[in-house]
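Run: sequence + guanine -> complex structure.
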Amino acid sequence: MAKIIDGKVISAAVKEEVAKEVAELKAQGIIPGLAVIIVGDDPASRVYVNNKKKACEQLGMLSREYTMPAETTEEELLSLIKELNTDPEINGILCQLPLPSHLNEELVINTIIPEKDVDAFHPHNVGKIMIGNYDFLPCTPAGIMEMLKYENIDITGKECVVIGRSNIVGKPMSMLLLHKNGTVTVCHSRTKNLKEVCLRADILVAAVGRANFVTADMVKEGAVVIDVGINRLENGKLCGDVNFAEVEPKASYITPVPGGVGPMTIATLMKNTLTAAKKQNGAK
Ligand code: GUN
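>> structure
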């Protein structure tokens, strides 16, 4: 029987800390502000953006949402970002991904100034993370690290296997585990003997985007299993990348979906927005 790592409880603790600091800043006349841009009508993105907005309001931050139609041009989107880059009320800018295919995601990410890049996707911030001297951490990997810390799960010397090599999760996740002295392997669609590699893992992070991808035969007895996936099944239910029913009895710790990593991503975004506001205002 695994211990369930409860993202709702842990994210509430993180958000409580952030709310306290927001109140302190407010007393100095500073209100942290986040701008969230959503282009098009992807239903999953809509849900994520609504949750981000709700969290901002809950913590006393300013939240501004920009909903743009799917046919928005690159010029229009870049022009909005440039405006927000110099807007003194806005400390953090997040453009929800994925973008419609005619828009160049890399160009969009590169246009957000690093100081307001609360996703930590800009090459400047990615480079700083690689070196280990960073201002922001990407929200999902940082949220996962917070969960491991909360549960006192030691990473030093552990075999860590990350399935997925995206810029948003897989690559930065591997870097953060490495910073904490894990022995890290990153698997992807071309990995041979995936099952054997996963079976080595003391800490297994699944970020593949495929429902029930990780099955019990891929998991070592006593492993810590972190499920980043949020997949919608045909019946409308949410489901992770891990087959929870099969894997849970073998794991020592496991994150559920929903209520696992998802809430941690948002809590980290709030933390990053607070950090951005403090830095931009020279506050401690
Ligand atoms: N799409 C899925 N996850 C994320 C995220 O963390 N940030 C942004 N901007 N888009 C996403």
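>> summary
The chain has a mean pLDDT of 97. The longest helix spans residues 7-27.
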